[in-house]
Design goal:
Shape of chain A: globular
Oligomer: homodimer
Structural class of chain A: mainly alpha
Distance between the termini of chain A: 36 Å
Strand content of chain A: under 5%
Largest interface: A-B, 76 and 75 residues
Largest sheet of chain A: none
Number of strands of chain A: 0
Radius of gyration of chain A: 25 Å
């Protein structure tokens, strides 16, 4: 009774802030929608993008809903059967099967909605940004950012409401606090599952259209980017929305949801110290982070001749600062008890480590992908001797760029772990340390809403540039949108760095949650001992999965792009009026072809990702000897951990190599090494094209894969015992 | 006394066979040297290659000897200091320091000699193969293979004599059998250390020369491969020798040595069952494998119109069959006792698993790199749409090709482990199982001498082709050497598959040896528990090392190739007579430039590889708490294991992507998609060039890195406790 009394306030706070965030999002939608939509020509183009994006997302969501339905049924059956088998308590077993399935469905539904809303706003903000660019850079910047913020706020608020809501519902149904986090892991899995397909489908769509449009348009026909004569140009613009908005929205939705649940599971271990407060702390910390993000978004503005990136950075620093304050307050309030009076200081330090880690990733990403620094200049130099040396240099940069992030993450994990151990003293053992890494992750995710706003800014300004170009606006307007577009490219790269950084930091937290869950079911605290052959083999298979998954994702782009190339060539050949500008190309046909291609291509890697951990777990169960009941659970943990390590490295490689190639090309286009149309530029275009599926398909899909592996093992843990 | 009596026969056998192998090698040298050396023009070219290769190897060996000397001193000091510190027994400690340092020096020296002999024969066989090609394909084939066999026999015999000899010396000095394997781990480390620099230096040399020669010669000047007007052509031919012969020779020398020692360490655990026989079994099994290889090499011959690959395959099957017979015999003789009367049957089965794994890797490599199959055809198809899609397709193939080998290795490890457990029954526990994986590795390495003969066949025939081309022989002679060269490309790819397969299979054996050694020093049997933060962080750093090392290796080729390009362009510009054929280019200048560049470039990755495990181990020692004395040793084990897993995957990726690109180009050159000089061909040349540093620098260096990590941790284990 006392529990329920005192828990009321934090929950009201979390829900209240979430509702404020949603209200702000709606207010921002109204603010954006009231803006001018420019000329008829602009509206025509924007409508075509809108129609294509909505048609694609409708079909993609239909596919995802079907797959989710099938999986929900499988989860229910497995849970009902396996738990019944293990527990000999049919009633309890059925209840848990229902809970897990229901939270899976809820997670999947929320993830779909979050992705859809982000894209819905984005395809309406693009034209308003384009229209505003005709009069004021500041207006254009603010419209794009606030449009993007709708996605950010929606994603973060939805994830809080989902996790918090399920918590309350289960509490009202009478479950004990300490069991609830284990019952809502299905929510994280549902979110991951949808995120995987959204990111894969969107990522394949956007790059197949981009590569296809570029190779025939720019390289063969010699027409500029976004030229209306290119039949694939609308598909390319649609791709920016379905890949970057819908995909990344679903990605970060599941990050925040899964990592929140993981942190709550670890909080259960601290109930002797902080009671239920430790369990709810992650929700409160993140709610305060959302508030900070709202302030951050609202203050951003810039003068006509300022660098818009500086304006965005000011907003980001403010958000980080406010979120650090909120974090310290929440820690003081919730992570303090007589048993550990100073714990809150240590955990606040852990949170700060998370915030600093986020900053570090932003800097590292900039270093490796901006043309102010050595790596991109090296690639640009190598372009002088042709495409082969350009590609070799890019791959070397991509491989190299993994080093510093891994060192940063290592320091963050060890430092927050040591601080966590200090917080509760040696008596609490590893539990306090593990919670320290969880708190650091929460700190890192505090600014998620702002980061996501900056990310969605990317495709909005990209689209705005495309609309300005296609509607034949004067040169100076294009220059303005080009400036915003360049900033958008940077923010997109930063978000990927942030996403992979938080995935890496969260990895350890999610492993620990898994081990806690195994303990919860078996009473045995297992290690993950690589010196056992089954465990080592599973680890090797986990790393291999990352390579195979990447191969599938990259090949899917290649195959799908081929169909676009064939179609564009066909249109150019059969309708010579297109190139003369007297005949309009059939944009819709290209959009349809990419849509079908992307949907078909996302199935294989998706099934691989979901199926592999299940197969490995069940196979290893076959090896169980009487003395080692938990060997399958241990093998699956190794599969997950080493898969995660490899996934982090490969994602960094793909994202940064792709970003560096892109900017090496831009650097040459600015006039170095002969500028546009020089041989060096042609070489750089090859590198950029190679980087496209790296940075926008394989890399981002790997973020989701990592977290999917974590949540799928959390949900299916009972199967492996 | 009884021990010494009964051990005499196996040791006499091992040493006897080793001496027979060396005698055969000398007989083969005489046989090859007696052959005709062709025309004066051919001799002139061959002499230039010889001079360049010997000059390079002299300088490289000088550098390596210096570095080895420094490291030997460091090892001595560390050992003397740390062991003194730990054991409080200065006399014993000094003895061990001396032993380890001496065996390090011996290993380094033998590795250098093995690499040198391989190259010495190769640069003398090339011209004789070229000369023989004028009259008979069979003669040319046999000369090339027998020249290659000198390297194979020398490497395998030297490694047996080294390990066996040290064993005898230490026994005579009065050390107990069960301590000796731990005392000679330095031998494996010395071999690895030299192999690392040989493979790195050679790999950078060969590809910098190749890429440089191709980019200016083939692409810019439009002259064919191996054209005498290209100033870098001699450097390119020298590169084949120093990279493929000297590098790979050192690589396989250390494989056989390190894995032998690892297997002997595990054999120590079985002394209760088989006595010292289990410790010596690996030596005997490999000695019989060498005998089998001699027979295999001697039977190879082919008719004028047969495929030379078929002839080589017949030799390989014979070697595998004989070595399987020998293996079963050795197991029956040495792995049988009253306590375990049927153990030899199970262990024979383990050996067969190793032999089958070798076969499987040969098939898989062929599937992914020959143009008869889907992967290469896919890359060739993608070349139609330009270099970007070609590169994307190649990377997808490279990533995909990791899947089946990992599954094969997983099955081999688990199956041999389970058989090993069966062999000794549950009472022996894991020890019997671990020895099972060691026996499988010995089975796989049984055919090493034959494989290495086929490998060295590659650069010999490559050089023979170059000599024929440069000395203006008639078209039909070139066709003959082209056929041999094509076979050589296949055998080189197969050897890489075999080398990485054996490294993967051996990995688990070497980890277990490390854990045994920690047990030997501390009496604590540690696991490698990834759920501890220090261990997880070390695992992440291990994976990162592989990426960073690859980045260094690939960048080194790029940088060094740039200097070649600049030099070739300079010669073309300053001496226009070269292109007209009236003036001879300055080959020596190019050779010098590549030599200096490669030597400089190999230092950074080499130091990184050697330094990283030491730094990680010592840093983690800083985290030692009183309750976890062995945490640093555990962290280093995780560093090694996850580094190995990542290394295996990346090596497969690099080797097979490179091989597939190479053959996609060859396939197009045969006339598909427009044949030579078509746009598809140009695109394929880009992919091939990107693949050059992949398959001949980064990939092979990673094999060595993996084994270096294993031996360095074995040697430095006492430091981490």
């Amino acid at each position: 009774m006392d529990f329920i009394q005192s828990m009321r306030f934090p929950f009201v706070l979390v829900m209240g802030i979430s509702l404020i965030a949603l209200a702000t999002a709606f207010w921002l939608i109204n603010w954006v929608m009231a803006k001018d939509t420019g000329t008829d020509e602009m509206r025509k183009i924007s409508d075509a993008i809108k129609a294509g994006a909505e048609a694609y997302l409708r079909r993609q969501n239909y596919t995802i809903i079907t797959l989710s339905g099938v999986l929900a049924a499988v989860i229910f059956v497995l849970y009902a059967f396996v738990r019944q088998h293990n527990e000999h308590d049919p009633a309890n077993s059925m209840q848990l099967a229902l809970c897990t399935t229901a939270s899976f469905v809820a997670g999947a539904a929320c993830s779909l909605i979050a992705g859809y809303v982000g894209m819905w706003v984005s395809i309406r903000t693009n034209i308003r940004t384009a229209a505003a660019a005709r009069t004021s850079l500041n207006d254009a910047l603010r419209i794009a950012l606030r449009g993007g913020a709708v996605a950010g706020l929606f994603v973060c608020a939805m994830s809080l409401i989902g996790v918090g809501g399920l918590f309350i519902i289960l509490k009202v149904l009478g479950f004990p606090y300490e069991k609830i986090p284990f019952m809502i892991v299905g929510y994280g899995f549902g979110a991951s599952f949808v995120a995987l397909f959204s990111q894969l489908g969107g990522g394949i769509y956007t790059k197949a259209a981009d590569v296809g449009a570029d190779l025939v348009g720019k390289v063969e026909a010699g027409i500029p980017e976004d030229d209306p004569r290119n039949p694939a140009v609308i598909a390319d613009l649609v791709g920016d929305n379905v890949g970057d908005c819908a995909g990344r929205g679903a990605d970060l939705f599941e990050s925040t949801a899964a990592e929140n649940i993981g942190a709550m599971i670890l909080g259960v271990g601290l109930i002797p110290y902080f009671g239920w407060k430790g369990v709810v702390f992650p929700l409160v910390a993140r709610a305060l982070g959302i508030l900070a993000s709202i302030f951050g978004v609202l203050v951003v503005q810039c003068e006509e001749h300022e660098d818009p990136m500086d304006a965005l950075n000011i907003g980001y620093y403010l958000t980080s600062f406010l979120s650090a304050l909120g974090f310290a307050g929440a820690a003081w309030w919730m992570l303090r008890s007589e048993a550990a009076p100073n714990a809150w200081i240590y955990y606040t330090a852990c949170g700060f480590i998370g915030i600093l880690t986020a900053q570090a990733f932003v800097y590292i990403t900039q270093y490796y992908t901006e043309y102010k620094y050595r790596p991109v200049l090296e690639i640009a130099d190598a372009s002088k001797t042709g495409p082969a040396t350009n590609v070799i240099a890019g791959i070397a940069v991509g491989l190299e760029c993994t080093a510093v992030p891994v060192i940063v993450i290592s320091i963050a994990i060890l430092a927050s772990f040591k601080l966590g151990v200090q917080a509760l003293g040696p008596a609490a053992g590893l539990t306090g340390g593990l919670f320290g890494t969880a708190v650091a992750t929460m700190g890192m995710l505090g600014t998620a809403a702002y980061i996501l706003a900056m990310d969605t800014f990317g495709p909005i300004t990209d689209n705005a540039g495309g609309i300005v170009e296609m509607s034949h606006q004067p040169e100076e307007i294009r220059k303005k949108t080009d400036r915003l577009d360049a900033v958008g490219n940077t923010t997109k790269a930063l978000t990927k760095g942030y996403a992979i950084g938080s995935a890496a930091l969260a990895a350890f937290l999610l492993f620990s949650a898994y081990l806690d869950e195994i303990f919860n079911y078996t009473g045995v605290r297992i290690g993950v001992d690589l010196s056992k052959p089954e465990v080592f083999v599973a680890a090797m298979l986990g790393a291999m999965l990352v390579f195979l998954f990447s191969a599938f994702a990259i090949r899917a782009v290649g195959t799908c792009a081929q169909t676009v190339i064939t179609e564009v060539r066909r249109q150019f050949k059969e309708r010579p009026g297109i190139m003369k500008g007297t005949e309009e190309p059939d944009y819709g046909q290209c959009v349809d072809i990419v849509t079908l291609g992307a949907l078909k291509a996302m199935i294989a890697p998706g099934i691989l990702a979901v199926g592999a951990p299940i197969v490995v777990g069940l196979l290893m169960r076959g090896f169980i000897s009487e003395t080692q009941r938990t060997i399958a659970a241990e093998a699956v943990a190794a599969f997950l951990m080493v898969g995660t390590i490899t996934g982090i490295l490969m994602a960094l490689f793909f994202n940064n190599a792709g970003g560096a190639w892109d900017n090496a090309k831009k650097y040459i286009e600015m006039g170095t090494h002969g500028g546009k149309k020089s041989d060096a530029h042609k070489a750089a275009v090859v590198g950029d094209t190679v980087g496209d599926p790296f940075k926008d398909t394989a890399g981002p899909s790997l973020h989701v894969l990592i977290k999917l592996l974590a949540t799928i093992t959390l949900v299916l843990a009972p199967l492996f015992i």
